[in-house]
Structure formats: C-alpha cells, structure tokens
Amino acid sequence: MAVIYKKLGEIADISSGGTPKRTNPAYWKNGNIPWVKISDIKGKYLEKTEEFITEEGLNNSSAKLFKKGTLLYTIFATIGECAILNIDASTNQAIAGINVKSEKVLNEYLYYFLKSIKNTVVNTGRGVAQNNINLSILKNIDVPLPEIEVQNRIINLLNKSNELVKKCKAQIEALDQLTQSVFLEMFGDPYKNPKNWPVGTIKDITLKTQYGTSKKASENKGKYPILRMGNITYNGFLDFNDMKYIDLDDSEAEKYLVHKGDLLFNRTNSKELVGKTAVYREELPMAYAGYLVKLVPNEKANSEFISGFLNSKYGKTLLYSMAKNIVGMANINAEELKRIKIYIPPRDLQDKFASIISNILERRELLNKGLKLLEENYNSLMQRAFKGELFTEEKVSNL
DNA sequence: CGCAGTACTAGATTAAACCA
DNA sequence: TGGTTTAATCTAGTACTGCG
C-alpha cells in the first residue's frame, strides 16, 4: 500500500513572528511572556527562554503567541532547527510556528520527519549575508502520512535510538568528570594542598617554553599540520578536525614542532578561553601557531599532571582571574604562566596519574566510536522510517 | 494598508595578523 | 616574545519593499 503524502501547509497552520521594538522598554521590561530566540532551541522540547516580552509588546508588534505543543522551526540564519514548545511562548521572525490541525498527524512524528529532511531544507536557503527560507517553502514540503499506529511506531523507535545516543554521550561526559575526580583524589584540592606536597611554581617543573610559529598557514599545502587555538577544546582535549598546513625548514622544526608529552597553552583569546591547555598525545609531531605556547616539562613533572592541574576547576578559575582583558582580547604570556603557583607531588605519583588518564582515554576512544555508530544508526533509521522502509501498513497489522 | 519576505545593520565572539 | 589590532564568522535584530 502506498503511503499518502500531504503538503505541510495542508495539515498545519504555519506562521512566523516578529520582534517588538527593542527601544521601547514597555515592550520588554518586566514582561512575562516567554520570548523564544534561535539560541533557545536546544533539544527536542523547549521548556524555557532567556527573555520575556510584555502583553503590550505582543499586541503592538507582529510577535505571535504560540501555544504549548506548537512545533518551532528556524527559517533564518540557522535553518532547520526544530523543537516542540512545552510552554506558551512568542517568537521572532527567525522562527516559524507550525500548528498541526489534522488529527491524522502526530506532533512528535512531524518533529522527527522535519529533522530527517533538515539537509534538504537547508539547501533551499537563499540570502546574501545570511540564508533564509520563506514560509511557502515550508508549506510546500511533502509529508508522508502513514496510519497513526505506524507514526507511533516510528516515534517509539526514534525515541529509543535517540535515548541511546544521549546515554552514550552521558557516559563520555562521566569519564571526563572522572579525570577530574581522579586528579583530586590523588593530589588533593590544589588550593588547600591537604597532602602537603612541596609547593613551587610552574617554572620549577618546566624545561622550556616556546611560542609557536607566526608563519601564515595554508589550507592544504605544507609538510606539517599546524595546531591553532580552535584545535584546543575548553575541556583540555585536542580536536584535529579543521587543520591547516605549513612548511618548516630544519632549523625551525626543533622550535615549532610539538612532540608527544608536550603541553600546549593558548595564550591569547577571549577572557573565558585564555589558558585552554591540552597535552599533545600523538606520535607524529605537528606545528603550532604563535598564539599557542609549548611547554616542555622537566624531570620533576609529567605534562598530564600539569594539564590536570590547569584544567581543574581551581585552575580554570585561576586562569580566568589572571587573564588581562584589553579591548575584548585577553592574554596570559609565558612568563605569567610560569609564575603560577603549583604543588609538586613526586614524579612517580604523577606518572601513575598519567597512566590512569591514558586508560580513561582509551575507554573514551571506544565510547566515541560507539557514539559515532549510534548516531549513524539514528540517522539511518530516521531516513528509512520516512521512506516507509521500516514499517508498512501490512507489517503492522500482522504484529 | 497590513504583512510576509528579505536585504541590511549590528553585536558578540573567535581567529588570525601585525608590529614594536 | 608579547600584546594589540584587525579580520572573519556567526547569529540576532531592524527596517524597507512590494504584493495581495
């Protein structure tokens, strides 16, 4: 039996909102009507917003009030994000509200369907500086409409698959937390130093520091991949997606290559991100850019320990307070980095910590691979479900 | 004349280049 | 090396324009 298709415009009312004048405080001050912006759309359900507008603002602008249960769909700048309203709220013109009016369509079903065609919709976007799609594109989308029972099956299946993805992410998150708690357990609170380790500065455990190369990197040409600030994550990992390349002659290679066991430190960035620190754990050396500092520890320290220290809550707070914030950019130079006070536990204990970390990282790697599979599975289920490959009317009636 | 559509403006943030 | 300036990018918000 062929699945019936209907236009989204036939099964739902679709309209977008508009922003009340920001210059009129009467529209915004002390408002109690939730105001949804694109950045509020994060998960499947939208529970709360950052801003609110007033009754007056709602009535004197093209802002519209959408009821709980409305599907929100972003149509401007960031296209194709989608969520189900779990509260009554108003939106701006970047977000369309889709109100299902046919009882033959389940809200969640439509939600998953819209997610499954995101790429197609995004590609229809037009615009000079920013892309946008208009409401008629939305209204023209063909929606496959199987029986409610089939819709329910699809919803359940995708919910389950999505749940697995979420759980896996939570496990990875937990492992990252574990790194922190292992550090605290082994060495104690860095501020109180309950185990009375000798105290010194980072300088005492540093063999040398070196700024990276100021050569311009190229998109694809060059002997070495080059690490830039974006490659260090806030959590202290290296992200090798989005690499550029560079050539170094032999005399520069020594200075501007980072080797396994070295520490990388981001000296310039916005105040929050200054001091991002990660251990370089790869076998093959890479180049690194001038706004990163390479720190090679001496015999007293293992870079995993220093990284654990700087990535601890204490370390993050300290770095934040140290960053000199001038015209939006903040700095911590190599000298300041080396002046940071740090407790110095025995080297063998630090090495033990490093080997635990390496175990955790292995497990993390496995989980990441698993996560990738789960996500692929989720996406492929989504695609197949709406092509009618998973459930047909006959199959359901036989079950 | 109201409203949808979209070009334009602007702010926040991040990344990279520059210069003493 | 170190710090400041500039560029790029991403996203939110405003305000015309033209159509029904």
From TrEMBL:
Q: Which GO terms describe its molecular function?
A: DNA binding; endonuclease activity
Which Pfam family is one of this chain's hits? Methylase_S
Residue stretches in coiled coil: 357-384
The protein depicted here goes by the name Restriction endonuclease subunit S
- CDD domains of this UniProt entry? RMtype1_S_EcoUTORF5051P-TRD2-CR2_like, RMtype1_S_MmaC5ORF1169P_TRD1-CR1_like
Matching entries from InterPro entries are given as:
Restrct_endonuc_typeI_TRD, Restrct_endonuc_typeI_TRD_sf, Type-I_RS_S_subunit
Question: In which family does this protein belong, per the annotation?
Answer: Belongs to the type-I restriction system S methylase family.
Where in the numbering of this chain does the Type I restriction modification DNA specificity domain appear?
Answer: 6-173, 194-374
Q: Which organism is it from?
A: Cerasibacillus quisquiliarum
- Gene Ontology annotations of biological process type: DNA restriction-modification system
Record keywords? Coiled coil, DNA-binding, Endonuclease, Hydrolase, Nuclease, Restriction system
